[in-house]
Amino acid sequence: xxxxxxxxxxxxxxxxxxxxxxxxxxxxxxxxxxxxxxxxxxxxxxxxxxxxxxxxxxxxxxxxxxxxxxxxxxxxxxxxxxxxxxxxxxxxxxxxxxxxxxxxxxxxxxxxxxxxxxxxxxxxxxxxxxxxxxxxxxxxxxxxxxxxxxxxxxxxxxxxxxxxxxxxxxxxxxxxxxxxxxxxxxxxxxxxxxxxxxxxxxxxxxxxxxxxxxxxxxxxxxxxxxxxxxxxxxxxxxxxxxxxxxxxxxxxxxxxxxxxxxxxxxxxxxxxxxxxxxxxxxxxxxxxxxxxxxxxxxxxxxxxxxxxxxxxxxxxxxxxxxxxxxxxxxxxxxxxxxxxxxxxxxxxxxxxxxxxxxxxxxxxxxxxxxxxxxxxxxxxxxxxxxxxxxxxxxxxxxxxxxxxxxxxxxxxxxxxxxxxxxxxxxxxxxxxxxxxxxxxxxxxxxxxxxxxxxxxxxxxxxxxxxxxxxxxxxxxxxxxxxxxxxxxxxx
Length: 491
Description:
Elements: H1 3-11, E1 44-45, E2 51-52, E3 55-56, H2 106-109, H3 115-128, H4 132-146, H5 148-154, H6 160-176, H7 179-192, H8 200-218, H9 224-247, E4 254-266, E5 269-276, E6 287-292, E7 295-303, E8 314-319, H10 326-333, E9 339-342, E10 361-366, H11 370-380, E11 389-395, H12 403-414, E12 420-426, E13 435-436, H13 439-442, H14 449-452, E14 455-459, H15 462-474, E15 482-484
Parallel strand pairs: 10-11, 10-14, 11-12, 12-13, 14-15
Antiparallel strand pairs: 1-2, 3-4, 4-5, 4-9, 5-8, 6-7, 6-9
Helix pairs in contact: 3-9, 4-5, 4-6, 4-8, 7-9, 8-9
């Protein structure tokens, strides 16, 4: 169960083989030559004034926070706490022993929470839920007071909305308090946050800021029991993120990369081919964050639209949102030779490994959700024994289902047309002769998918994902077989 599915549940009652024939999109060059490391350019300065090479590795001394417990405690019996001591409070005050339930040990804090633990956290949130935005603002005020210089570098003033979105996400994660569902996501997020110069010691300071902001906003309704519950939840999620950062400590925090091709499909849409300066270890179905030189520290999430290739290139599909910002720059102003910076690959729920979908695979995509589905289909085409696969790409017009013809050409070239089928679904073009309607409503009616036993991948805008999941569950497909990897609000 992915992180977003865990939140929805609460809020509502082997490596991929490279593809033999890489696709070409219009004027895009073929991608079928072995990777050769390009000549190393001079190190380029990044935000904060640090000068690094093209694949950035930082190995500062590690200062672990006092509350940190390794993630393995999640999967087994927690070890006994040293001297049976209660957990230290994150706000610097003496340890708080709640009246009920019994005080948790430090190791127990990192273990799976009980139903009572979760209820206490939600009770604490109910006290401030009507002022959740103010909680986020107060959290950052506390954080900037504790880390005036470092926090400004991590969250510059031009990132006001991104900063606010991350604060809201942090509160949601604490309230959800579901470490098992969150482990993969938070581990990747912890590794990814190294690009912001986040160090393990910062998690304790952030926890103190969150507790202080929450306590001040709650006022007299705040109790030691609430504090202990929130400390426990934050300890669990922060420990997972720290583990993710430590596990990837010897890997780059970011990759320098170059645009090698750019094709503007529509006024507001482009396909961009990128070649990282060093091998980029992603899997089909994952996404990444990227930064442009003219938009420092404004990391934006982009789905990778192709399976791993021998030449270390991949495509991203970008739709411009407005006339300014990162997406607009990528669509309207980017050209071959331009430089950019990539964060580590992220996302798990759309990754499919050989042998894991014995009942076949149903893919439902809309908008730029077609990008990760294209990568998955392209990857499966390279398997020795591909499963039965049905992919449906929806859009308002024929232009919106741009990958369908490309993927069908690959399928025909590989002789897999009986096992792998890709269809377009158009809602607003009467002249289109294929499937008509909204993909999230039409696809569940086409077959008895539950009887076939398929796993399902869903990608697209959040409302489309929610509707698709509801409709597929309504025809009997178990929620555990429906996979989606929604972006969190903040990069």
